[in-house]
Amino acid sequence: MGAGRVTGIGGFFLRAQDPGALAAWYRENLGIVATKSGEPDPDGNWSWAQEAGDTAFAMFAKDSDYFPADRQFMLNLRVEDLDALLDRLEAAGAVVSHREAMEGVGSFARIHDPEGNPLELWEPPAED
Fold this sequence. Notes:
This protein has helices at 19-30, 82-91, and strands at residues 75-78, 98-102, 106-112, 118-123. It is of the alpha+beta class. The protein has two domains: 13-50, no CATH class; 52-128, Signal recognition particle alu RNA binding heterodimer, srp9/1, CATH 3.30.720.110. A hairpin with a 3-residue loop joins strand 2 (98-102) and strand 3. The protein is globular, with a radius of gyration of 16 Å.
């Protein structure tokens, strides 16, 4: 493509009823450096340095039932040890609404954050 190209996602921003509480939920349950707009996290961090890996950027039909129709987006997070993460999330009160494995693609599970935003957790297939 040459000069003037996008190299990755630089941020993800959500509107929230309680930005501080929602940021804390993401930090405590998913280990993400999540902040309330204009403030660092409690450790002074402003951003999350995630591991490099594939990112799907896909458009769905307006009437798709892949995620709730009242939501414009669904965040998909790459994870390690999906089962252990789901055990921890369920112990914290999260409900797993969908689970599947796709040959050659990996394992998926769907939850919602405390404000109803859909999250898909994706564990890519193990490298041979």
